[in-house]
Structures are given as structure tokens and as C-alpha cells.
Amino acid sequence: MKIDTRERDVVIIGGGPAGGTAAALLAEKGLDVLLLEKESFPRFHIGESLMTETWWVLDRLGMVEWLKTTAFPRKRSVQFISEDGSPSKPFYFFQTNKHESAATWQVERSVFDEKLLTVASEKGAEIQMGVSVDRVLFDDEGQATGVRADLAGEDVEIPAKVTVDASGMGALLGRQLKLIRSDPRLRKGSIFAHYTGGYRDEGADEGATLIIYTEGNRGGFWYIPLSDDRVSVGVVGDPDELLKGRGGPAEILQEEIQKSPEMRRRLCELRQASLCSEVMVTSDFSYRATRCAGPGWVLIGDAFGFVDPVYSTGVFLALKSGEMAADAIAGAIETDDLDASRLGSFAPDLVSGIEAMRKLVYAFYTPGFSFADFVRSHPQHRERLVDLLTGNIFKEGVTDIFDDMKDCCELPEELPLESG
Ligand SMILES: Cc1cc2nc3c(=O)[nH]c(=O)nc-3n(C[C@H](O)[C@H](O)[C@H](O)COP(=O)(O)OP(=O)(O)OC[C@H]3O[C@@H](n4cnc5c(N)ncnc54)[C@H](O)[C@@H]3O)c2cc1C
What we know:
By secondary structure, this protein is α+β, with helices and mostly antiparallel strands. Helices cover 32% and strands 24% of the residues. It folds into two domains: 1-72 and 107-183 and 285-420, FAD/NAD(P)-binding domain, CATH 3.50.50; 75-100 and 188-283, D-Amino Acid Oxidase, Chain A, domain 2 (2-Layer Sandwich), CATH 3.30.9. It has 14 helices and 21 strands. The strands form four sheets. Strands 1, 2, 7, 8, 9, 10, 19 and 20 form an eight-stranded mixed β-sheet that branches. α1 (17-28) runs parallel beside α4 (109-122) and α1 runs parallel beside α9. The structure holds flavin-adenine dinucleotide.
């Protein structure tokens, strides 16, 4: 394997949704872009449920028509189900959105992420798979100057005007610069797997995401219908209660399913579903970097921060931050102004959206809180809640919902964004 080590306009670390989007949109603008991905695709990745607001970025990338040809189920709603199995009314996205974007997809990430890199490559980005970046390089003034990567055992340095970290939860540059802060209140663990043959609702509800509370609202299951009669199932909870001293992940997942009337009904009673993947575990995944950009560098997607899996915000925020960063970087390179404030000009908007979702996650984990009860007592907020659940987080007035929600649950202080 060989890589041309000429200076690039942009080097991107990681080929998930964030890196793929930034690579595609920067290459489309005629910039010289190199994306380095440590894995070989296709590869499994958790995070299958899209939010409807992804439509706009996907349309800009030219992926909507392709998505329509796939067998990925259409997601038209989210429904919450209490610990005893009582369902809320589905929150249908078409009730507040008359555009075709109101129906999104439950995707298989191995297929989706690989397609996005194909799109980026067709737009002119150079994609190198199987190349792991070790660190971002800086000059004596603190300006990022490119990356050092491991190319089949050989170290190579690749210079770049701008380095973008899209390395996901590894958060390579955020950790290198010690910018990562975790949210101790959202310290969670998760066990997840794919099943085949689980019960599916019918009609408009067939592709719905279900969020099913576990005991005392301390956590929840997701239930995401996929193609080929498969369903993505995962449980999120306190990592000490969920993961410690209880046997292997498969055993724990099975026990948790048996404790939840709704999960038991769907996987064991109405249909007999069988496990069709490995059972996987992840934990301690709620964090954010204190800065989004610096001289010559930008963080996007999970490399900047991750809140919680419960509302399926991750891919949307990865696509959106990839798009916002691409526009900011192209403008910065054009004007030869690579300082932090120019490269990170999108960060305040992005952070306000992320912080809104973090508040909604706090509400979810508040014992006794229920969205169904909240909208019954505050019907004026139903539309705002649906907006937030679809990713319409930059809409004016959408955060007004928290003026009343803070009386029902403790909401977090916003984590400030440092500049520099
Ligand atoms: C339990 C759980 C469930 C989730 N469910 C959902 C969901 O239903 N819907 C949703 O939208 N989101 C979900 N998410 C979040 C979602 O998976 C992520 O937010 C999303 O994948 C972020 O995209 P990204 O491009 O930032 O990072 P990633 O998709 O993780 O991509 C990063 C890429 O960088 C590569 N990489 C890492 N380090 C290096 C390196 N040093 N050099 C080169 N390459 C590197 C990796 O191999 C990877 O391909 C979930 C997360 C968890 C933990």
C-alpha cells in the first residue's frame, strides 16, 4: 500500500457518517481531500435508526434516491412504552412535517457507511482504508499541520492545511489535546444485538422505533426493525447494575428481555425470535469536547461528542456536523484564514442543538417522568417535542419546551464551549 504524502487541503480521520459527509462535500467544492479509515469496509457499526432531519444532508449528498431503492424499513414515528408495557400514542413525524422527509430509514450501517464513502470517492475524495492515524501533528505555534499514520507497519506523515477528526468515540484528537469531558449523570452501559423474527407492527408503524422503559426509568430498550426480518435490540442502563457480576453479555441481555413485558411479548410470545449476531457491549459513552475547532483542526461527529443512544441522534449529528464543518472549512481555505474562530464558526449552533438533546435525555432518565404525561399536561409542546425527536433542533423556539419541562425534571446546565 502506498500513499502520496503531498500536502492536502484537508485530511480526515475516520470514514463513518461524519467523515464521509465532510469528505464528499469538501471534494465537491474542488478541494484536495484525503480520508483515512482504519477498518476495511463493509464493517458492522451500531446506530441504525436515522432521524428524519437527516433527509436534508442526505439529499445534498445525493443519497436520497439510492435510499429509496433499498429494502431499509421506513421509519415514520417513535413510540414510548412504559415499564409495564403501556404504550404512548406514536409520535408520527408527518403530523408536524408535510414534506417527504417525514419518513426516514432504519439502515444497516455496514451498507450505509460504505455507500457514503463511495459517494465521497465519486465526488473526488481519496479514500484509503486500513490506515490508522496515530496522532495529529502540530507546529511550534500550535497550528495543526497534518497527521502521522500507520501504513502497514510503516509510519508516514501526511501534511494538510486542515485536519478533521471524525474518528468516532475514539476521539483521537480530543483525547490527544485532553478536551474530552464526560457527563457523570449520563454514565451508562449498553448491550445490544440483532434478532431475526421479532414481532413487527403493521402499516405505518412497521418501521417505528420503539423506546421501552426498564424498571424505574433507569434505562430503556431500543427496538429498531431492520430489513430481512431482523430487528436491532439493545438495552441501556446504569453500567454497574447492568454489566457487573451478572455473567456474560448474552445472558444479561436475555435476562433483561425476560424482565420487560413488552420485549418478552415481541421476542418470545407473539413470535419466537432468534439471535442472529454477536451480543456486543459498550459503556461510558456520554461526553463532549470543550472545543470544536482550533488552528488548522476541527472535530465532528462522535469525535466531538456523544450524548446517549436513546433518541438515535448520533448519525444525524454526525451528518450535520460533517456538513457544517465542510462549509466552514471551504470558506476558511478560500480566505486563507485557518484559525479556530473561522474553522469553528458553526460550533455555537451545533452545540445549542446538542445541549437541547442532552436536556431531553435527562428528562427520559428521570424516575416517574413520562413524555405521554408531559404532552397531556402541556399539549402546546407536542409539536416541539416531535421537532426535537426528529432532529429539528435548530428551529427557532423549539427549546421553549424546556421552560415547562424543567418543572417536571432536573435539567442539566449547558456545558460551555471554549474558544481559542
Ligand atoms: C449503543 C449505541 C446505540 C446507538 N444507536 C444509534 C441509533 O440508533 N441511531 C443513531 O443515529 N445513532 C446511534 N448511535 C450513535 C452512532 O453510532 C454514532 O453517533 C455515529 O456512528 C457517529 O458517526 P461518526 O462518523 O462520528 O463515528 P463512527 O461512525 O464511529 O465512525 C468513525 C470511524 O473512524 C474510524 N477510526 C477510528 N479511529 C481511527 C483512526 N485512529 N484512524 C483512522 N480511522 C479511525 C473508525 O473505524 C470508524 O469507521 C448509537 C450509539 C451507541 C453507543
